[in-house]
Amino acid sequence: MSDQPYVDRALAIYSGNGRISRDQVLREVSPVVVELPTMICVGLNLRPGNVGGDTTICYSRKNGDQVLHYVNGE
């Protein structure tokens, strides 16, 4: 299975479900996927020059539900 659906969902959450464009989000962050035994996590790492904290959103491998949303610095 492709990781793209998880990345797409994480980008939608980060964008406030469309409040800022996907292109703008991708100018701010670089998505990285990490596969764990029970979860698939998408790290949205800030690109240089942007302020704030990196965001991590994880989904259950079992059913795809979001199980974690963490922003470094909050």
Short characterization:
The chain is α+β, with helices and mostly antiparallel strands and 74 residues long. It is built from two helices and four strands, in the order ααββββ.
| Overall spatial form | globular
Mean pLDDT: 92
Strands, count: 4
Order of helices and strands: HHEEEE
Please list the strands of the largest sheet in the order they lie side by side.
1-2-3-4
* Integer-rounded radius of gyration: 12 Å
Instruction: Please report which band the strand proportion falls in: under 5%, 5-15%, 15-25%, 25-35%, 35-45% or over 45%.
Output: 35-45%
Please report the distance between the alpha carbons of the first and last residues.
32 Å
Structural class based on helices, strands and sheet pairing: alpha+beta
Poorly predicted tracts of residues: none
Please, could you describe this protein's structure?
The chain has 74 residues and is an alpha+beta fold. Helix content is 24%, strand content 36%. The chain has two helices and four strands; from the N terminus they run H-H-E-E-E-E. The protein has helices at 4-14, 22-28; strands at 29-35, 39-46, 55-60, 66-71. The chain has a four-stranded antiparallel β-sheet with strand order 1-2-3-4. The longest helix has 11 residues, at 4-14. The protein is globular and about 35 Å long.
Describe this protein with a few key phrases.
36% strand
Fold topology:
Layout: H1 4-14, H2 22-28, E1 29-35, E2 39-46, E3 55-60, E4 66-71
Antiparallel strand pairs: 1-2, 2-3, 3-4
